[in-house]
Amino acid sequence: MVLDFLLPSPPKSWSADKTSAFHAGITAPTKASIQPVGRHFLAHARRYIHSRTFSEDEKVISEAEAAAKAALKDDDEGGSEGDEPEDPAMLKRDPKDWKDQDQYAVLGLSKLRYRATEDQIRRAHRKKVLRHHPDKKAASGGLHDDGFFKCIQKAFETLMDPVKRRQWDSVDPAVSDDVPNPKSKSDFYKLYTPVFARESRFSNTQPVPQLGNAQSSQEEVEGFYDFWYKFDSWRTFEWMDKEDGEGHDSRDDKRYFEKKNKAERAKLKKEDNTRVREIVDQALSLDPRIKIFKEQANKQRNAKRLEKEAAEKRAIEEAAAAKIAEEAAAKAAEEAEKTAREDGKKNKELLKRAVRKEKKNLKALIKDNNYFLPAGETAGPVEVEKQLELLDALLDGAKGLDQLEAVRKTLEDGVKNGNIAEVFKAEVAKRS
Amino acid sequence: METVVIGINFGSTNSSIAVLAPNGHFNVIANADGERMIPSAVGFQGDEEFCGTQALQQAVRNPKNTLEGFRKLIGKKFEEVKVPSDATHPDMVSKDGLPAYKVSFKDQEHIFTVPEVVTKQLKHILEEAETYLGSKVTGAVLAVPTYFTEHQREVLTSSATAAGINVLQIIQEPVAAALAYNFGQNPTKGDAQDKTALILDMGASSFDVTVLSVRSGIYTILETAHDESLGGSSFDDELVKFIAAEFKKKTKLDVTGNKKALLKIKTSAEITKKNLSRTPGAPCSVESVAEGMDFHATINRLRFELMSNKLFAKCNELIEHILEKADLTAGAIDEILLVGGATRMPKFQSKLRDIFPETPMRLDQESDEAIAVGCAAQASLIAGFEKEDIVASTKENITVTPHTVKPIGVVGSKGEFITIVPNHTPLPVKRVFEFGQAEQGQQEVYFALYEGEQDALPEKKEKVEKIDIGSDDEDEDEDEEDYIPVKPTFHQTTLLAEVVLKDLPVAKAGELKIEATLQVDITGKTTITLREKKSGKQVRAESA
Predict the structure, then answer these.
(1) Three-class SS of residue B397?
(2) Which of chain B's residues have a Cβ under 8 Å away from the Cβ of A6?
(3) Chain B residues with CB inside 8 Å of A35's CB?
């Protein structure tokens, strides 16, 4: 109740220290009966019996409600096996045809199918029995119709026996055996992951490698295809056997049927193996990862080849270059030789000329300087001859221009110093 | 074992069964004959015993051995019972002081006491319910009229137990109807749904009027009245008289003394009356009324209303009478709940408008099924409880509780009295209400609690032609010729308490919301709590 008015300030006469004042009690109440109906009365009675106040009661009730809600939730999670709606057609099935019934649907497990655990099957079965037991139906006035109950029992027997369950799972029509359309445009992983997951159930070796995704490593992918090409399936087609092998009077009949069934089973098994093979082949051919891996391998191979080719080319080039360089060097050497030879000739001539000049100079020098006789000696022809012979010997002894020049200088110095005679003698002695 | 509980309306003429369906709605169960109304009748013919529809079908041929209307004899002594002994009624004898029926059954004279007959009828009802539900019924709630004494209830319980019914609780018919209409059952913090209803239950053989108040979902019967001369069959009788007269006009045959002929006419008349509630004219045909002569006619609704005008007037008189007894004005009635097949009559409803021109009238439940539905609702509520707990909680120490006499409230800004706890509120009570505003900058608020008193009832005016006015409030603003009864108004009389909440944060007007909690316990001790919602600042005061 919201009252739309202002609460005033306390009146002037109100003393500041008071917070409340009671002036009168309410008019004495009269006793009257309240009607013991409805939930509000129940709340009233509850409060009275437990002597709770309004707020205490509210608290207790809300706590109880929360607890009840939580309990209900827990209960729900306890297992929804067997809670599926029941198809009325299924309920009317003739238990004689139990082999054709959907064993999982009968127990209300059509969603779980081959994934149902033994525990789940047990629980679903119990629920169904509680619902469909003939005694219960009779009690509720129904007819003595226990057809569906028989179906339940058969389904339970089948699914609890591991051999029979495998036989049934092998031919469960509700699980598709399709090979995906290779031309399908849809995502490869989306298309094939469920297919392989589905086929995995038949594998003798568990766990089964799964398709994975685009990020799977090459090893994984190769391992996957490797596994599936060697797929070892337990799938069996005994459920489809035409006639029960037993119950034939004649041994021949029995053998005949056994043989026929065996052949049929083998045929189906072969077909199934082909089918799996087809799936794997198709997947392999469509697998984008395989394409990527191939490309990568190609690239690697190419890279190696190119490197080799480049090396060869480089070697050839280098060899060619070396040859050219060699030739060039040879040519240069030849030319240098030639030049050197030509230069040598000229030099020789120059040298000769210089030598001659030096010799001339020396001869002139000797003539000018009294034939290098010691001062005071007059050059007679004998002395002159002797001196000239000595000079010749000296000149012969002094090979090359340098020596000649050195000789000349020594002699010139001797001339200057006035001891030419001694110098000359020494020189001759030194050189000849 | 799964609990399956049903509600049984064991009426004096018809019974019905209701059950809470899983979808949350209440289903009324049809019997093997497809009837949702199972006649309360037991018949014996030859070697066979009939109950319900079949018993009624052979009633015309076999009136001596067909037992009807035995509900009102429950728990009565033979001396208390008026015995109509003639050719159309079974013979009644006294057996151990109890009224008993003497019938011929299996070519022998048998005597069945009233409780035994009730057991037969209830057993039949239980069987019908169990056939329909396909499971065992673990408990049932039954409804009885308000005038049933404690002794009568006990007899009914033991009869029901003998029939194999686990009686969870016996509740009052008008209360069951209120429950079916979900009247005032959803009080919220903001709206306590304090209302007063007038429950009009016109069954086949009686007219029960009840003034019921609801306070926080708890019902208190303020006043009841009933008239057994008013009821669906009284209207049938009017119609029978008319048809007999018509028949006499046509055939010169007087059937007034011919009980068998009258019974035949009555069976048809009842159907015609029901049809008239829907259509303005209905055919009536009785085969071989007397001496092989048939009766065929179409009866006009207006004709029917004219002939039963007196009965309608009597209904209104009873209503006015009860309002006077309860010291209420017509305006104090918030809702009218219609129960019982006969309340479907258009004239009945239009007549009510004379007293209650604007009061909402509720007929949204199938009116003759409302009581059974209410019983089923109550049954589903208490289904999980132990029997002892149910018995313990209906003991007087819990059901008899002090009720406020005068309204408690506050005085509004215009000096008007605003009711917080109305009168007739069972104690203890807790009410939470909120004051929308506080003045700007105001740091202290003052709260005063008053007891109020209803403004004086206006003088009863003379009846105006055509329009029956029960009571009208005289108000200055109202024109004298305005017949609309206004809601009763109150004025404050006594200051009960004053409380001040201090040190409030400074805020603009309207920003602070102050929540007040008022509790009154059974001794009348008052506790007031004022709490400012934002700051959580509060003050609590308790009377000595």
Answers:
(1) helix
(2) 413, 435, 437-439, 509
(3) 171-172, 175, 212, 218-221, 399
Q: Which residues contact A396 (CB under 8 A, 6 or more apart)?
A: A432
Residue B75's nearest CA partner among B129, B128, B151 is: B151
Q: Which residue, among A411, A377, A369, has the nearest Cα to A394 in the 3D structure?
A: A411
Domain end point (choices A122, A155, A175)? A175
pLDDT score for B98: 85
CATH number, domain containing residue A106:
1.10.287.110
B378 close contact with A: CB closer than 8 A: yes
H or E segment at B438? Answer: strand B429-438
Kindly state the tokens that stand for B289. Answer: 């009324």
Option in A24, A28, A40 nearest B218 (CB): A40
Q: Please state, as a whole number, how many other Cβ atoms lie within 10 Å of the Cβ of residue B363.
A: 15
| Integer CA distances (angstroms), B214 to A197, B44, B175, B403, in order | 65, 45, 10, 12
Measured CA to CA, the distance from residue B362 to residue B180 in angstroms comes to: 11
Residue-range definition of the domain harbouring residue A323: 296-431
| Cα–Cα dist B176/B168, whole Å | 14
Query: Does A414 map to a domain?
Result: yes
Tens-digit pLDDT profile for residues A232-251: 888 888 887 776 545 667 77
Burial class (CB in 10 A: 0-12, 13-18, 19+), B307: middle
- Give the model confidence (pLDDT) of B33-89 as tens digits: 888 888 888 888 888 888 888 888 887 778 888 888 888 888 888 888 776 666 667
What is the number of structural domains in chain A?
A: 2
Q: pTM here?
A: 0.61
Task: Report the range of poorest mean pLDDT among A126-140, A355-369, B130-144.
Answer: A126-140
Record: contact B526-A39, CB cut-off 8 A: no
% chain B with pLDDT above 90: 15
Question: In this complex, do B217 and A39 lie within 8 Å of one another by their Cβ atoms?
Answer: yes
CA A157 to each of CA A175, B87, B278: distance values in angstroms, whole numbers, following the listed order: 20, 71, 62
Asked if B226 contacts B207 with a C-beta cutoff of 8 angstroms, the reply is yes
Judge: A54–B519 Cβ closer than 8 Å, yes or no: yes
Q: Nearest C-alpha of chain B: how many angstroms from A28?
A: 7
DSSP label at A81?
A: T
pLDDT for residue B180 is more than 70: yes
Q: How many interface pairs between A and B have CB atoms less than 8 angstroms apart?
A: 203
Q: Is residue A198 part of a domain?
A: no
First to last CA, chain A: 154
B495 to chain A, closest Cα gap in Å: 7
From chain B, the residues in CB contact with A56 under 8 A are none
Contact B445 A25 (CB under 8 A): no
Query: How many residues are given for chain B?
Result: 544
Residues of chain A in contact with residue B434, where contact means CB-CB under 8 angstroms, are: 1-3
**Among candidate residues A175, A206, A231, the one where a domain is terminated:** A175
ipTM: 0.82
Per DSSP, helices labelled H in B182-295 are 232-251, 259-276
